[in-house]
Design a protein that fits this description.
Family: Belongs to the TRM44 family.
Pfam family, one: AdoMet_MTase
Number of domains: 2
Shape: elongated
Largest sheet: 7 strands, antiparallel
Strand content: 15-25%
GO molecular function, one term: tRNA(Ser) (uridine(44)-2'-O-)-methyltransferase activity
Catalytic activity: uridine(44) in tRNA(Ser) + S-adenosyl-L-methionine = 2'-O-methyluridine(44) in tRNA(Ser) + S-adenosyl-L-homocysteine + H(+)
CATH superfamily of the largest domain: Vaccinia Virus protein VP39
Function: Probable adenosyl-L-methionine (AdoMet)-dependent tRNA (uracil-O(2)-)-methyltransferase. Adenosyl-L-methionine (AdoMet)-dependent tRNA (uracil-O(2)-)-methyltransferase.
C-alpha cells in the first residue's frame, strides 16, 4: 500500500540531530508509543489495537526529507484512544502508518473523524501528524547527519504554533522522541515501575471518583496558606491508592480496616478516608486551621509522640511524609499486636531521619539518589522488624513518591529481640522535634527582648 506525502501540505514543527542512533532504535520507540498512547498523551487512559498488519516492501532511503510521492507503508495499525474521562471526552479511532520513503521512515498518525465529530481536546489540532527519522545525508535545512523531526498537515496555515503553549507541546514531544530514541541505543531499562501493588485501571477509576467528589470543594475553600492545588490533589491520589490497596486486603476480611495517620499534618487524608467509610484518626504535633473545617466526625489529635513508648490498636499505621516518625513506624507496628494480630503499615518517606530524630546523610553512590538510599534504609529496617515489604511508585505530583507497604510476616515474633534493641536505642537517643508553635513563641520572645533592649 502506498501513500503520497505532499510537501506543500506538510510543515516541519520540530527537529533534532540524533547522532549515530539507528533506524531500529527509532522504530522501537514508535512501536511502544503506538501500543501505549498514554505515554505521550496524558489524558489517554488506554490504547486498544484493532488491527496491526505488516508489509515487507521497502526501499533504501536517500536522506532527503522532501515528502516524495514514491513510498511504501510497511506497517498499518488501527487503534482506539480511550480517554480517562469516558463520561466527558469522546474516544477517537486513529490510523497509524509506518511509511518508508527515500527520505527515511515516517510514523504517520491520522485521526478518523466523522462529519460531525470535532477533534477532542487531548488530540493535536491537525489533520494528521508524523514522527520522522531521516538518515545520514539528510537535507533538513541542508544539514547533514541523522535527524528526528515532527511534521504535520495543519488545519490552517501556521495554526499549530499560534500560541506559546502549542509551541511547547511540540518541543516537549521532540525532546521525548530524542531522549527515548537515544537511550534505546544503550538498551535502557526503566528503573521506576508503577502499578505493581495496585493496578492502574483500578487506581485510576478510584482517583477520578474521589477527585469528582472532593477536589473542587477543597481547592475553592482551602483555609491554609499552602497551595491547595498541590495538597488537595496529592492527598486525593494517596487516599485513592490506599483505598484500592485495602480493598484487595478486605477480600479476606469481613470488616473494613481501621487506621491511624501519624504526622497527619493538615488532616485531609484522614478526612478523605473517613468520608469513604474507613474508621481512623490522625496525630500531629500541632493542630491546623483546616482541622476545624472537617466537622466533628474527624478525629485529629494534637500531641507529641514518644515513638519508643507508643502503641496503637488499629489495622494499619500510615506515615505520609511523617519525617522523624517514619523509621519508627515498623517498630511501632511490631509491638502493637492485639489478640495476636499485628497492624500493617504504609509509609511515604520524605526527609531522611534516623532513629534519633536527626537528619541522615548518605555517601554518594553512582546511580543512587539520597532519597532512594533512605527508602532502602527504611525497607531494611522493616524487614528486620519482621515485615514483608513491597514498594510502589505513586502517581502523585511529588519527587518523594515511594510508598512502602509492610505486612506482618510469619516469623515476626522471632524478630522481637531486634525490635527491643531499637526501643532501647530510642530511649537513649531520640529527641522529639520542638513543635512549631513553641518555636514561634521562642522567636517572638527573642524579638520582644531585643525590642526592650533597644528602648532601654
Amino acid at each position: 500500500m502506498s501513500t503520497g506525502l505532499d510537501i506543500d501540505s506538510w510543515r516541519i514543527l520540530a527537529e533534532a540531530d540524533i547522532g549515530d542512533s539507528e533506524e531500529c532504535h527509532f522504530l522501537s520507540v514508535i512501536d511502544k508509543w503506538i501500543r501505549e498512547a498514554e505515554l505521550i498523551i496524558p489524558p489517554i487512559k488506554s490504547t486498544e489495537i484493532i488491527e496491526d498488519t505488516s508489509n515487507s516492501i521497502s526501499s533504501e532511503p536517500s536522506g532527503d526529507i522532501s515528502f516524495p510521492t514514491t513510498n511504501h507503508t510497511v506497517r498499518h495499525v488501527c487503534r482506539v484512544l480511550v480517554p480517562k474521562r469516558k463520561n466527558k471526552d469522546p474516544t477517537i479511532q486513529e490510523h497509524v502508518d509506518i511509511i518508508r520513503t527515500n527520505a527515511g521512515i515516517f510514523a504517520r498518525f491520522t485521526p478518523q473523524l466523522g462529519e460531525t465529530m470535532e477533534i477532542p481536546f487531548y488530540y493535536p489540532k491537525v489533520h494528521e501528524f508524523a514522527f520522522a527519522y531521516v538518515e545520514s545525508g539528510g537535507n533538513i535545512h541542508h544539514e547533514s547527519g541523522c535527524k528526528l523531526a515532527i511534521v504535520a498537515r495543519e488545519l490552517n496555515p501556521r495554526s499549530t504554533t499560534t500560541t506559546s503553549k502549542q509551541c511547547m507541546i511540540w518541543k516537549d514531544l521532540i525532546k521525548r522522541l530524542y531522549k527515548w530514541t537515544a537511550t534505546e541505543r544503550f538498551g535502557y531499562q526503566k528503573r521506576v515501575l508503577h502499578d505493581v501493588v495496585v493496578g492502574y485501571d483500578v487506581y485510576t477509576a478510584k482517583y477520578q471518583e474521589l477527585k469528582a467528589k472532593y477536589a473542587l470543594h477543597w481547592v475553592e475553600n482551602w483555609p491554609e496558606q499552602t497551595d491547595p492545588r498541590k495538597f488537595v490533589y496529592e492527598d486525593i491520589a494517596i487516599a485513592s491508592w490506599i483505598i484500592c490497596l485495602w480493598q484487595k486486603e478486605q477480600d479476606s476480611r469481613k470488616k473494613r480496616p481501621t487506621f491511624v495517620d501519624l504526622g497527619c499534618g493538615n488532616g485531609l487524608l484522614v478526612h478523605l478516608l473517613n468520608s469513604e467509610g474507613f474508621n481512623g484518626f490522625g496525630i500531629d504535633q500541632c493542630s491546623r486551621r483546616v482541622w476545624g473545617h472537617f466537622g466533628d466526625g474527624v478525629d485529629l489529635r494534637a500531641q507529641t509522640l514518644v515513638p519508643y513508648e507508643f502503641t496503637v490498636d488499629t489495622d494499619w499505621i500510615i506515615g505520609n511524609h511523617a519525617d522523624e516518625l517514619v523509621p519508627w513506624i515498623p517498630a511501632i507496628a511490631a509491638r502493637s499486636s492485639s489478640s495476636a494480630r499485628y497492624p500493617g503499615f504504609i509509609v511515604i518517606p520524605c526527609c531522611p531521619h534516623d532513629l534519633s530524630g536527626s537528619k541522615m546523610t548518605f555517601p554518594a553512590m553512582a546511580g543512587q539518589s539520597k532519597y532512594h538510599l533512605y527508602v532502602n534504609y527504611i525497607v531494611d529496617l522493616a524487614s528486620k522488624c519482621g515485615f514483608e515489604v513491597e514498594k510502589e511508585y505513586l502517581r502523585i505530583p511529588s519527587t518523594k513518591n515511594v510508598a512502602i507497604v509492610g505486612t506482618p510476616s510469619a516469623n515476626i515474633n522471632a524478630r522481637r529481640t531486634f525490635v527491643d534493641s531499637l526501643l532501647h536505642t530510642g530511649a537513649q537517643d531520640f529527641v522529639a522535634r520542638i513543635p512549631d508553635s513553641i518555636k514561634n513563641e521562642i522567636r517572638l520572645e527573642k524579638a520582644r527582648e531585643k525590642a526592650r533592649g533597644q528602648t532601654e
